[in-house]
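Field reference: "sequence" (input) and "structure" (output). Example, Histidine--tRNA ligase:
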Amino acid sequence: MELPRGMKDFDGQENANIEHIRYHFKQLSNLYGFSFMDPSPIELLSTLETKSGPGIRDEIYYFKDKGDREVALRFDFTMGLTRYIASQKSMKLPAKLSAFGGVFRYDEPQKGRYRYFHQWDIEIYGKASLESESEIIEITSRLFDSLLLKDIVIDINHRNLVESYINKVFNSKDPELVSDILRAVDKIAKKSKNEILKEFQLKGYESEKLEKILEFSQIKGSIQDVEKLFDITQLESWGELKQVIDSLENRGVSNVRINFGIVRGLDYYSGIVFEVFDKNSTLGALAGGGRYDTLTKAFNREDIGATGVAGGVERIILTMQEQNIIPEMLQKRVAVLYINEEMQKVAHSITSLLRLNNIPTDIDLAGRNMKKQMDIANNARFSIIVGPQELEQGNVVLKDMINGTEGTISLEKLTEDPKSILNLEKL
C-alpha cells in the first residue's frame, strides 16, 4: 500500500492551492496573448537527449514501451514545446505558448519538490529580440504580484558575460572547461566556497583562478552598483544586460537586480538568464528561465530563437504558506443542514436548486445528526439550516460561518433568487 519513493497524493487542500495558481497563471497567460497547450507527457527518449545527451537518463524516468521503443516521461515543458514548434514549418512567428501541469524527475526528493510535481511554463519562439526576454520577465513578475507574494526579487544575468570572463581568467575557450566552471558557479548557492574549490581542484583546476570566478559570481546589485564594483569594459554582453533592465524599468518592473552568480544549470541556455527568489526564504529559486537558441538549433531550426521561463508550483505554495497568504477554501460555498430525517427531503431540494444556480453547495448524504453535519459547514461561507419550526412558517435559518450571526429568511425568496439572497459574488 506504499507509493514509490518521491511520489505523493494531492489532497483537496493541495489541489485547491494548485488550482489557485493555475487560475492566476491562465488569466495572465491569456492577458499577454500566450496560447495555452498541453504537450505530450511521454516523449521519445531520443527527443529528450537532443541537447543534453545520454547523461539526462540519470535524471529522468525512461523505459521501453510494448513496441520496444525507448520513451521517457517529460521532465519539463520546454523540450516538448520546442519539439512541437520545430515540427510546425508553417507556424506564424513569433509564437507565444504556455503550459501548466505535472512533470517527472528522478531527483533526490527534497522540501518543495517530489519526483512528480507541477510546473507553469511560458515560451516565446521567433526572431531573437531582447524585448521577448523583457516580456517573459515582466509576466513572471506580474504572476507573483497577482499571487500577493511579497519580497520577491528577480536576479538577472547573461550567460555570455560569465563565459567570456571564464575564457579571460583561464585563458581558454575550451567548451568543456567553460561548462565545468559554470557548474561550479551554479553550485555556490548550495555549497560553501571551500567545498567547491576542493571538488574542482581534484578535477585539475587551479584554485586561484576558480576563486577569482567565484568572487566574480558574488557581485550583485543595480547597474550603478555593479559598475562601481567591477570594470565592466572587460565583459561581453554587458550592453544587452543593461538594455533588458532599462526595458523592464520602462514596463514598470522594479524588483530586478543583476546577479553574476545566476547561470542556470542546463546546457541549452545561451543568453539572458534569470531566477526568482523570496528574499526571506531558504527554499531556493521559485522560477527560472532565459534564452535558449541552442535548443531550437539542435532541433534543426536555425531560423527560430527561443526564450522562456518555468516555475515550481509546490515551491510557490510553500512560499505562500510561509507568508501566510494561502487562500481560504471556505469562501463562496454553502452548506445545507437539516434538523431531522423529516427535513432531509426539503434540504436536498434546496441543495439541488442552489447547484442549478451555479452555487457550490454541500449536504450530508449519510443522514447523520446535526452535530456531525456541521463538519461539512467548516468549508462553507454560509449554512442554510432546515428545521421544522421555521419551515412551518415558510422559512429557513441562514447562518454566516465567519461571524456566527444567523437569522430566518423566506424559503420562497431564497428559491426565487438565491444568488442575490446569498450574494456570494461580492465576497
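The chain has a mean pLDDT of 92.
Residues 393 and 410 are 9 Å apart (CA to CA).
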